[in-house]
Every structure is written in C-alpha cells, then in structure tokens.
Design a protein that fits this description.
GO terms for molecular function: polysaccharide transmembrane transporter activity. The chain is α+β, with helices and mostly antiparallel strands and 418 residues long. It is built from six helices and eleven strands. It has three domains: 37-121, wza like fold (2-Layer Sandwich), CATH 3.30.1950; 125-155 and 375-414, Outer membrane lipoprotein wza domain like (Outer membrane lipoprotein wza fold like); 162-364, no CATH class. Helix 5 (213-278) runs antiparallel to helix 6.
Length: 418
C-alpha cells in the first residue's frame, strides 16, 4: 500500500510538473499578446492530458494533440471534436472548449486539461512605398519601423543614381526655362512700350518677385532707347533730306523766273535786231549773237525744269521712305510681339513638362527627401488597416507603433511640392 501511494505521489508530481511547464510556456506566449484574439492563419500547438485517479497516472490524448492552423473560416478541425471556432477567441478559451468537448463526447468523469500555444502568428502585410511589398512573419514587439525594414526599407530608384540624374536634369531644364521665360517677359514689356510710344518700360507683374528683374528691365530699356534713337535718327535724316530738296526746288523756281525774264528780254532784243537787219541798218552778226543768247537761256530753262522735276521726285521718294520706315517699325514690333508670345507659350509647356518630370522623380523614390524643392520637410505617412472583429478600419500610426498579427501597413510618401 505504501508502495502504491509513493507511485501515485510520483505521478502527481509528474502531472503537476507537466502542468506547470505547460503553463509556463503558454504564459510566455501570452505575455506578448495579452488578450490576443486568434485569427485566420495563426498556427497552434495543442496538447491534451487527462488525470486518471483510479491508477494515479496521466493519459495523453495524442490523437487530439498536434499542430493546427486556423483555417479561412476561422475554425480548427480536430479529431473526435470536429470543427471548433477559434477566430476571435483567446488560447485559454479554445483550450477550455477542447476540454469540455472531449468530456461531453466521451462522457468523462474528469475534465481533460488542454494546452493551446501559438507556435506562429499570422503574418503582417506591407504595401505602398516599400522596396519589397508582401507578407512577412509576425513576431512579438514588432513595430512599424521594424516591419518596414523587413520589406527592405523605403522604396528607392530602380537603378542606382537614376532618380538623382533624372531629377537634376529636369531641375536644370526648369531653371533654364525659367530664366528664358523671365527674359521673354521683359522683352514683351519692352515691345508693348515701343508700340505704345512710351518712354519707359513698366515692371510686369510676373517679374516683381524675380531677383534680377530690374536688371532685365534695365537691359531692355537700354535696347529700346538705342532702337528708338536709331529710328528717330532715320526719320530726322529723311526730314532733313526733304527740307534740302524743297529748298532746292524753291531755288530752282527762282532761277526759272530769272531765266524767263532774261529769255523775254533776249527774245525782244532778237526781234528788234531782226527788223533792223531786214532794213539793212545792222549786220547779221549781232542777230546771230542774240539768237545764241536766246538758245542758251532756253537750254538753261530746260535744265532747271529737269533739276526741279528730279528734286520733286526725290522728295516723293523721301516721303515714301518715311512711310515705309514707319510701317516697317510697326510691322516689326507686331511680328516680334507675336514671336515672343509664341516663345513664351512654348517655354510654358516645356517648363510644365520639366516640373512634371521633377514631380514624377520625387514621387517614385524615397531619395526625394534630399531634393525637396520647397525646402520643407517631406514626410512618410504610415497607415495600419486592422480588423478587430467589427470590420477593417484604417488607423494613422507612426514608426514606433506596435503591430498586431494580420495588420496591413500602408506606406505613402507625402512630398510637399509647388
């Protein structure tokens, strides 16, 4: 009898030790997930034992124990028991349910002791701006930052310095286009001033915040003054030429009057001399001299008329040249205005394209943090999608937020751009 009692005590001690060991393992697992609710894809290790008081031994239910996974329906499929709902329950609740189901099905006097331990948590999922999106195993004390590191960190450019090259090229082009655009705006202001006949160029609104705006306006003002001076000098030259020609016409008109009087005198003298010659009072030599004098005067009158006609033609040509000069001035300004506006439109499209390329380069690479053109801090936004039995909900988190098994972490780069 004493020998039997010693064996029973040893069995009790063994059972208690086993229970304590199981409890220690279970508590170590549950310590990291206090109140943790099981879910689909959680892997469990189940052990079941029953104390036999009749002979003081422990009966192991090896047919029930083993490794199990919570299925898509949230249930465990156990021998003898069948489907057992596990999703949304704790390991303690599942263990209690297993013991009760076995006692009821086999009409056991004592409640079997079940141990349910989590051998592997269901994974977490990473999506968005990470190098390798996908599912990753969960471990206790897993934070958002640790999960992102498992996924290779924030997404980088596809090949080495591709982002930096593309961004710098686009930024350089944008700077060149900006500079050209500012110059064209200053030129446009100068052309409008020339067309309106203004003496000064008004500062365009688009240049008020530009660092070298005054230099651009000063340069265009100098060009406008030079062009205006040359234009006015050409007009003055034509005016002076017409004045000289008009004076020549007036002088020739006076000469014509003088020559006409001389011609009248010479003609009268010739007629008188002709009568005297016919009467034999004088010889023919004097008549011939008067005839030559009259012919010379008539020739001079013809030359004066010719010169007068040429001078008047030159005046007409000068008038036409002045008209052409004024028309060319207006037409040239109109054409330059049209060409400048077309260049501005083209540059606007090129500038928009360069900025879009910069934006695309920034949004496609985490390296954008080093190239934020606004000089403001670019941020990374973390969002966790979690289902706690009442439907999936999105929660904004930070890098140090602790995760739960089954969480979906969305990583989005938020870049503040103009």
């Amino acid at each position: 009898m004493q020998k039997y009692m010693s064996a029973a005590r040893r069995s009790c001690v063994l059972l208690l030790a086993t229970g304590v060991l199981s409890g220690a393992v279970a508590s170590s697992s549950q310590a990291a997930d206090s109140g943790y609710k099981l879910g689909v894809m959680d892997k469990l290790q189940i052990r079941v034992a029953e104390w036999q008081p009749a002979d003081g031994t422990v009966r192991n239910w090896d047919m029930v124990g083993g490794d199990y996974t919570v299925g898509p329906s949230g249930q465990l499929s156990l021998p003898f028991i069948g489907d057992l709902k596990a999703s949304g329950k704790t390991t303690t609740e599942v263990a209690t349910e297993i013991g009760q189901q076995l006692r009821d099905k086999f009409a056991l006097r004592n409640l079997p002791s079940a141990s349910v331990e989590i051998s592997q948590f269901r994974p977490v999922f990473l999506a968005g701006d990470v190098t390798t999106p996908g599912q990753y195993p969960f471990s206790p004390n897993l934070t958002v930052l640790k999960a992102v590191s498992l996924a290779g960190g924030l997404r980088r450019s596809e090949s080495g310095q591709r982002f930096a090259r593309d961004f710098i090229n686009a930024k350089g082009d944008a700077a060149v286009y900006d500079n050209q655009r500012f110059r064209l705006i200053a030129r446009l202001a100068r052309l409008h001033a020339e067309v309106d006949g203004a003496k000064e160029i008004a500062m365009p609104a688009d240049l008020k915040d530009v660092k070298n705006a005054q230099q651009l306006i000063d340069s265009e003002s100098s060009l406008m003054k030079s062009r205006r001076d040359r234009y006015e000098l050409q007009l003055k030259s034509l005016t002076d030429l017409k004045g000289l020609l008009q004076s020549e016409v007036e002088s020739l008109a006076q000469k014509t009057e003088t020559q006409k009087r001389q011609l009248q005198i010479a003609s009268d003298s010739r007629d008188k001399m002709s009568k005297l010659t016919e009467q034999g009072i004088t010889n023919n030599n004097r008549l011939i001299t008067l005839e030559q004098r009259t012919a010379e005067i008539e020739t001079n009158l013809l030359d004066i008329d010719t010169n007068t006609l040429q001078a008047k033609q030159s005046i007409s040509k000068a008038d036409q040249d002045e008209i052409n000069l004024r028309n060319d001035w207006v037409a040239q300004r109109a054409k330059e205005l049209q060409d400048t506006e077309a260049e501005l439109e083209k540059l606007g499209l090129q500038l928009t394209t360069s900025r879009q390329l910069m934006s695309e380069a920034l949004t496609q690479s985490a390296e954008a943090l080093q190239f934020d053109p606004t000089r403001k801090a670019a941020t990374i936004k973390y969002t966790v999608v979690r289902d706690e039995g009442q439907g999936a909900k999105e929660v904004a988190v930070d890098e140090n937020t602790a995760l739960l098994p089954g969480d979906v972490i969305k990583v989005t780069s938020e870049l503040l751009m103009q």
